[in-house]
Design goal:
Alpha-Beta Plaits, two-stranded antiparallel sheet, two-stranded antiparallel ribbon, alpha+beta, 3 helices, binds iron/sulfur cluster, single chain
Amino acid sequence: MKPVINKRRCSAEKDVCTAIKVCSEGAIQYVEDEDEPLGGRIVIDYASCDECGLCATECCGQAIDMKSLEQHQCFHLAMLGLHGATTQFHSR
Ligand code: SF4
Ligand code: SF4
């Protein structure tokens, strides 16, 4: 199970993001993006994620769901994240 961000619920606030703070693997980061309405977005690095689920439990906006993803989906999400387009794959 991998954490997937529901962008509609995420406030994308770097300094208050509880998910970033609780991730012991450092797998969650804030990325500035001027194309985003809020000026940035939260990105999850699945290569570092150990699937503990803590970010989903502690997310301040209940914006993270743990979902089963096929390996190729994880790969695409990771690659798109590196290229700044992860948001289009966030759940609706
Ligand atoms: S805690 Fe959740 S809703 Fe809040 S900024 Fe982080 S990912 Fe978004
Ligand atoms: S599931 Fe655990 S390791 Fe993965 S991003 Fe969330 S808090 Fe970090």
